[in-house]
Amino acid sequence: xxxxxxxxxxxxxxxxxxxxxDTNANFIAKQLTSSGIKxxxxxxxxxxxxxxxxxxxxFSQKYSYVFTTGGIGPTHDDITSESIAAAFDxxxxxxxxxxxxxxxxxxxxxxxxxxxxxxxxPADVHLIYNPLTAAxxxxxxxxxxxxxxxxxxxxxxxxxxxxLKKGKPKKITTINTNLYESKIASxxxxxxxxxxxxxxxxxxxxxxxxxxxxxxxxxSSWTMxxxxxxxxxxxxxxxxxxxxxxxx
Amino acid sequence: xxxxxxxxxxxxxxxxxxxxxDTNANFIAKQLTSSGIKxxxxxxxxxxxxxxxxxxxxFSQKYSYVFTTGGIGPTHDDITSESIAAAFDxxxxxxxxxxxxxxxxxxxxxxxxxxxxxxxxPADVHLIYNPLTAAxxxxxxxxxxxxxxxxxxxxxxxxxxxxLKKGKPKKITTINTNLYESKIASxxxxxxxxxxxxxxxxxxxxxxxxxxxxxxxxxSSWTMxxxxxxxxxxxxxxxxxxxxxxxx
Lengths: 248, 248
Known about the structure:
- Two copies of one chain form a homodimer.
- Chain A is of the alpha/beta class.
- Chain A has two domains: 4-162, Molybdenum Cofactor Biosythetic Enzyme, Chain A (3-Layer(aba) Sandwich); 171-247, ACT domain (Alpha-Beta Plaits, 2-Layer Sandwich).
- Chain A contains nine helices and twelve strands.
- A six-stranded mixed sheet of chain A has the order 2-1-3-8-7-6, sandwiched between helices. In chain A, strands 10-11-9-12 form a four-stranded antiparallel sheet, with helices on one face. In chain A, strands 4-5 form a two-stranded antiparallel ribbon.
- In chain A, helix 2 (24-34) packs parallel to helix 7, helix 3 (49-62) crosses helix 4 (80-87) and helix 8 (181-194) runs antiparallel to helix 9 (228-240).
- The longest helix of chain A has 14 residues, at 49-62.
- Chain A is elongated and about 75 Å long.
- The model of chain A has no long low-confidence stretch (mean pLDDT 94).
- Strand 2 of chain A pairs antiparallel with strand 2 (37-45) of chain B.
């Protein structure tokens, strides 16, 4: 079975300064997981050519798909497109199709020099259309270049995803219990050893006001045909230990 | 002037699967920025020993400080501590001080084998105390190992931060305007070229319902003594172009 993998590059000083809470990685991650594409790594990097070039090259070699967000607007700090051209030794030039789309979108006289910058791309790309604000992203080799504004990125990503080769979606079930993590830890370890084809994660939470807490036990697998047996064993164990459970 | 740098490693399959939206990186990023520590990179990686070892080694060499979150609980998928021991060729063993803290915290008979696992750490660490749920983090060389649960991580991080050597805080001002990004792009480019010691970022936003939008212009510098001149020039430009502005 082919496993398709992915890496995400979030490009932007504003994430590293803490000014902006990134939500693009999480949006893409969810979509990939349910599409059978395994997200291996997320990296947040500065708006700096050298770092973008190195990261794009390395991700492009390691993963089936690379998604970048940010840095394709009209201003001087938008350097993603030219950096990606450099990463793949391509010319950085006006893309005629992008130019025409943008020219048509803006009222007469409004398609100024800064806006024309959004039509500059590496040679030999395919466009990713933007139904909201016209300015397209692009794909070059296995690298999908998307904008940073979440609403726009999301619409464009969904369109990209439709045409990607996908794997079998990851099977996931989550069991919530009021038992504490340490109470069930050794059982979960044994269960993990018994079912090596799935991955059992244990995510505790606490409510500091009510001083209550519990665990979400997540069972997931890219290869098993059913998680029913694992789920059943975990529920039995919770009952045996006098805990409550629910499937989340 | 010494510039202190930092890297963050978010360790956890649940972030990569999209199950959990990470907020720890943003919390740490904000605190670092206002403490004069320059966050250079954030990386989200899987719960897998080899990847943790490589990432910790590389970050530890590149940055003044490394912060990791996640993977130090009592269950089988918590492998951060032993991976960090491996990264620095240290024994992975019971830390007496951590053991005593946890033993005291739990009622008689409740300090079971799984919980004792939380006292296993690399040799030669210093503890990072946990005022909420007892289980400590630790620091080894320049690597600060913190839990993944945000409320706990945040309290522990604030305590860690108090004792770090810091730089001069980054100066930041943000000017909001209703002008579109492409209208001001060429001015911002010139201003950026004039004031090379600051970094001018331009962050557009759109309201798709009201079809209005604008830009937040962020000016920041690690070295300039004042941003007043840059701010004044940008405001003048906004007025000249008939836009509104406010300092955010």
